[in-house]
Amino acid sequence: MTDLIIKEDGLTLDDISAALGAASSNTEKSPTIPTLKINSFGEDANGDQIPLGAFFLNTQEDRVYAKDGVKLRAFSNHIQYQHWGDGKLINKSLLVKNNREEARDQLGGLMCGMPTYEQSVQMSEQERKEYEGRDRYRIIRGLVSYTGKTAQGKEVTIENQPCILSLKRKNYGPFYHDVLNRMPSGMNLWDFDSILKADKMKSPKGATYYVMHFSPQFGSPLPMDQMTYDSLAHVTGLITGENKRIEESYKQSSMQAADEAMQDEIMDAVDTLEADFQAA
């Protein structure tokens, strides 16, 4: 392995692995980075035809689509709860490494108020509607490489492009089953590429959607070089920074809620005293 240049205040690989949730185990406001998605529409915003089931980076322009040969070198794996409404993010939780960690959120609660699975199965359909927009996501950061075409047919090669995967519902589980649950002992996520595949599915109501699957190349290990180490250190900084901001927001919201509760108690006591005085 290449000798790595680690700054005096830098992180070791063990530090990075722990922070990113990237090591194999028998236990269970960031800069803009494009999201890796699967196209489920037949055309783009300009009316150009694009292939269904193709992977693409969700950039503002010059999107490149590919159905085959898409490789992901994952750097991190986290769970995050998010609450969306009217196309806007209302609340989000800390990025946690597993379900045992407390997913404190920006508004002073846990898991964005999302019920557990056991709670949700006991709810009526009307009760579940109250929690629409709240979901559990698997957040993966890494580098993607592939050769594809733009909507205009121009061939473009993308190599080691930083990206984020934000996976929920049917797409939440495959990364665990395809990759994490099969990782050889002692391996980290960045030690190998995974080849991506989009499986076409249909809902009970006939709607088409795609599920992302991963084929990890455990037998073709990738070297740890300076570029990889620097990328890992950068991603670690992004995650640490985001969690710090969410933690600060959680504490501020919790303190505000406590102050409001205390004010309510004081007002209740005043109202009681006034009622007793008037009665007397």
If you had to describe this structure to a student in words, what would you say it looks like?
With 280 residues, the protein is an alpha+beta fold. It has one domain. The protein is 28% helix and 27% strand. The protein has five helices and nine strands. The chain has helices spanning 13-20, 117-121, 125-129, 174-178, 226-279; strands at 36-38, 55-57, 65-66, 71-85, 88-92, 134-149, 155-168, 194-202, 208-216. Strands 4, 5, 6, 7, 8 and 9 form a six-stranded antiparallel beta sheet that branches. The longest helix is centred in the last third of the chain and has 54 residues, at 226-279. The model is unreliable at 26-31 (pLDDT under 50).
What is this structure, in a nutshell?
With 280 residues, the protein is of the alpha+beta class. 28% of the residues lie in helices and 27% in strands.
Cα-based radius of gyration, to the nearest Å: 23 Å
- Main structural class: alpha+beta
Based on DSSP secondary structure assignment, what is the total number of beta strands?
9
Largest pleated sheet: 6 strands, antiparallel
Helix content: 25-40%
Looking at this protein, list some descriptive labels.
280 residues, alpha+beta, six-stranded antiparallel β-sheet, 5 helices, globular
SSE layout and pairings?
Layout: H1 13-20, E1 36-38, E2 55-57, E3 65-66, E4 71-85, E5 88-92, H2 117-121, H3 125-129, E6 134-149, E7 155-168, H4 174-178, E8 194-202, E9 208-216, H5 226-279
Antiparallel strand pairs: 1-2, 2-3, 4-5, 4-6, 4-8, 6-7, 8-9
